[in-house]
Amino acid sequence: MPRRPNIVIIMADQLAPHFCGAYGHRVAKTPHMDALAARGMRFDAAYCNAPLCAPSRFAFMSGQLISRIAAYDNASEFRASVPTFAHYLKALGYRTCLSGKMHFVGPDQKHGFQDRVTTDIYPADFAWTPDWEAPDERIDKWYHNMQTVKESGVAVATFQTDYDDEVGFAARRWLIDRGRDRASGDEAPFAMVASFIHPHDPYVAKPEFWDLYSDDDIDMPEVVLSPKDQDPFSRRVMDGIEASYVPLTEEEVRRARRAYLANVSYFDSKTGEMVKALEDIGELDNTVIIVTADHGDMLGERGLWYKMNFFEHSARVPLIMAGPGVVQGTAPNACSLVDMLPSLVEIAGGDSATLGEPVDGRSLMPLARGDPDPVDEAIGEYCAEMTPAPVFMIRRGTLKYIHCDVDPPQLYDLARDPMERVNVADDPAYAEPAARFAAEVAERWNSVALREDVIATQKSRRALHAAMEAGAGEAWDYNPPSDASQQYVRNHMDWTVAAARYRFPPLNKDDDHET
């Protein structure tokens, strides 16, 4: 009986597929992602379920929409009682590991991962709680602003490159350890998530990646709208990130986009490191590799930056899958990150009976195998800063519908208008689908009740954060365990045994190395 495949998920932060060579960007240098796409499946309409870091990641890990698990914003607790794909994979016999960012908020900092080999890059407490009763209030300590764009450029090191270099090193070492386990006779499959912070802003790149590009290479935003031409929600986002009143020069925009592309290439290099580690331990051909991200980045399109909206550059994510059972091709069906959990469970040999809670996604393995999939849908919810009410998205077929109770509806036909220039919600030619979408939103969500729950959790979290700031409880930030007394060579060890354990590939016992 063949061994079940290993699983390695390589996750970027704030990576829009539009800026990847594998998705057709004319100058983006992403050879490792390109190579995976060339031998695997590229999903061309994959979306996040919430265009913000923590909510998106909690949906990704749980297979559930954020309204179901109250994962509203970057300071929402990810409850320990919510099963994740890490729980299910461990129960199915996999050794599991997280290296890098997952933005877990709350005292549970593992959520089913057997091993977690780095800390997180962001705080694990309730500090970043927004206030929907004061939606126009900026919180300068942690809100994005245009200074981030203005400071774009080159640096030998940043907190982000320090972090990603650590994540890559720890992930590679963990994979090499699995090779050592194989050499000792342990055949258990493994599943690892290597989650990097790049190309998330600040847009500051290492010189060697910055130098991959020139200013002449950099394309500028295709659609630029002034504040007065924005839809109401986009105008609130512009105000919140200061884009409404802090002008950017063409040179500043170009520099930010160049640094972003450089950091896309930097992330791609980390993808290459993970693939090389699998090759080194002889597991590449028995590993399903998945490359994705938590959300995209507007990067100046429509005058917007970062994420926090459901336009394509913000809401879409790359999704590339390669490995055993995955054919080469492209999948046009709309899908989303909640589809990852049922996909991973299927790869691991589980089924619906494995699940402890209902999930909102479906397995993408039929598409990965090249089979037809009747589902062509992605659902999104946004319940974080810069809005006073929930924002919903339905992408079905080529149409995308966006609803917020306080704003006019938006409908875009992406087949005819991929840059979303024309809102056809009031176009008589689209009256029938617009009405269907409106009715579906009203049936699917109770927006008023959801808003009340969001505000209630915000109040409780702000009160708890004040208490924690005053000294109540302990910090939740993850501190990876390390026992130096058991590392490398120590007095209680036979150093020859330690050397043999660490050496990979191991020496063949039949070899004669005497001289």
From TrEMBL:
InterPro entries recorded: Alkaline_phosphatase_core_sf, Choline-sulfatase, Choline_sulf_C_dom, Sulfatase_CS, Sulfatase_N
Domain Choline sulfatase enzyme C-terminal: 452-504
Chain segments annotated as coiled-coil in the UniProt record: none
All residue ranges annotated as the Sulfatase N-terminal domain in the record: 5-349
Any matching Pfam family: Choline_sulf_C
One of the record's GO cellular component terms: cytoplasm
SUPFAM superfamilies xrefs: Alkaline phosphatase-like
Gene Ontology MF, one: metal ion binding
Family that this chain belongs to: Belongs to the sulfatase family.
Protein name: Choline-sulfatase
Lineage, top ranks: Bacteria, Pseudomonadati, Pseudomonadota, Alphaproteobacteria, Rhodobacterales
